[in-house]
């Protein structure tokens, strides 16, 4: 009598079940890695947008003309001078820069001297709250336009995206000896 070699049906079912469990575990691991990577990518995009917006505000604040800062709820206006042209040479004219919160978007409007052309730039989206304060040596931190002495620092507190309260203190011209 010849004996046939091979696998029994039970052995095949057990082997298929083991491979199915291994495949399911591998798929879940792959799925969690992809989701983590997507979350990290979104976080990175949000933090870069916030850094870019704060960098623009910091550049404008550093070039602000003494005594030109005006504050209002959700709004900052200043005059800046000696900003660079496309050839990276300083300009002599002044530029009015206005930051405003419209809905959940922070906008930057700039207007130079001469022909009135307002350039609008969307700085940051998903802004939940925004506040500005200045530091005056006589009154300390306050949220009102300074008359007389030029403020030494500008404080920005913003909540945007997944970030709760980001506080940045920006030194103004004339604050360093």
TrEMBL record:
Keywords, comma-separated and alphabetical: Cell inner membrane, Cell membrane, Membrane, Methylation, Transmembrane, Transmembrane helix
Domain of life: Bacteria
Membrane protein topology class: Single-pass membrane protein
Location within or outside the cell: Cell inner membrane
Transmembrane segments annotated in the record for this chain: 7-30
Entry's family note: Belongs to the GSP J family.
Protein name from the UniProt record: Type II secretion system protein J
